[in-house]
Amino acid sequence: MVTFEYYLKNKNGSKPRTIQNYLDTVTTFLNTIKNKDVITEEDILKYVEHCRDEKHHKNTTIRLRLVAIKTYCDYRSFKDIAQFICKVKLTKQKKTRVVNEFTPDILFTLRDYQTREKSYRNRLLVDLLAGTGGRVSEVLAVTLNSFRTNSDGLKVVDLYQTKIEEMRTVVLSKVAEQSLLEYVRAKNITDKTANLFYYLNSKSEKCELTRFAADKILKRDLAKIGQKPQSCHKLRHFYCSYWSGEVDNSYQLQQIMGHRSRATTDKYVDRTDTHKFDSAHREFLGERLNVPVRQEQEAVVV
């Protein structure tokens, strides 16, 4: 019998990351229903309710989950359920402003826990995300070749965004630099072109860490220290909220974050964030590169 994974790979032509996401989604879905041999319309509706009310997923995420389940139904020849999934309408959700729930003290507590557990990889992940403001995909793609010393003698990291094929350079914080050295030493990493973030599968083969896995790691570690689980992307909001009080204008902040639109940057900034950043906290967040200041007349929008 053809497995679902084989079906995705050969019949559907899906990419490896998509296959893994589909398998994870279907496994979670099947664990929520009583009879795995028969999928009913009620099972689908209950899963949607579970995603919305308990997992607090956005409609976009729920729709992607349903696409994965529909593909599984096509594989099992559950044509009626596949058609039903196409007709499922999601109620419109109210847009809520993102509030930065990370504080410097939470991050220090998290780092202390990861240090005690000798979780050098997880600590480096947090330090790079919080200390560079990089996108999760950018940070997960770094190699040893991504780190260098610039002409000013500062340790920097080159972050590459694959979607728009652009590179931006961010100064590495002292904390992140120390974490990098300890991680490389502990794992004896010598290949400068290989991804830094990986895990070992059941065959002891190195596999690249996915965004889903990175979120799972962070949420688990936060739960261990008694904090609310949050995604890795929230560390980017934390970084942006910090720099919003340090730069001269919103254009500079936009350049630091690597946003194409200033409106996107404004969404990231938590205006209610009143946390004080002392010298110790600044070691966590590092410095910033000199960003050109846009002339006032150029900033006028007609």
SSE inventory with pairings:
Elements: H1 4-11, H2 16-32, H3 41-54, H4 59-75, H5 79-87, H6 104-116, H7 120-132, H8 136-140, E1 147-149, E2 155-161, E3 166-171, H9 174-187, E4 198-200, E5 206-208, H10 211-224, H11 233-244, H12 250-257, H13 262-268, H14 279-285
Antiparallel strand pairs: 1-2, 2-3, 4-5
Q: Would you write up a description of this structure?
A:
There is one protein chain. With 302 residues, this protein is mainly α. It has 2 domains: 4-87, DNA polymerase, domain 1, CATH 1.10.150; 104-289, Intergrase catalytic core (hpI Integrase, Chain A, Orthogonal Bundle). It is 52% helix and 7% strand. It is built from 14 helices and 5 strands. It has helices spanning 4-11, 16-32, 41-54, 59-75, 79-87, 104-116, 120-132, 136-140, 174-187, 211-224, 233-244, 250-257, 262-268, 279-285; strands at 147-149, 155-161, 166-171, 198-200, 206-208. The strands form 2 sheets. It has a 3-stranded antiparallel β-sheet with strand order 1-2-3. The chain has a two-stranded antiparallel sheet with strand order 4-5. A hairpin with a 5-residue loop joins strand 4 (198-200) and strand 5. The longest helix is centred in the first third of the chain and has 17 residues, at 16-32. It starts with a helix and ends in a 17-residue tail after the last helix.
The structure class reads mainly alpha
Largest sheet: 3 strands, antiparallel
Alpha carbon gyration radius: 22 Å
Distance between the termini: 64 Å
Strand content: 5-15%
Helix content: 40-55%
User: Which second-level CATH architecture of the largest domain applies?
Assistant: Orthogonal Bundle
Order of strands, main sheet, comes to 1-2-3
Order of helices and strands: HHHHHHHHEEEHEEHHHHH
At the fourth CATH level, what is the homologous superfamily of the largest domain?
Answer: Intergrase catalytic core
**How many domains, in number, for the residues?**
2
The overall pLDDT average reads 82
The tally of beta strands, per DSSP, is: 5
How many individual helices? Answer: 14
Shape: globular
Specify the CATH class of the largest domain: Mainly Alpha
CATH topology of the largest domain: hpI Integrase, Chain A
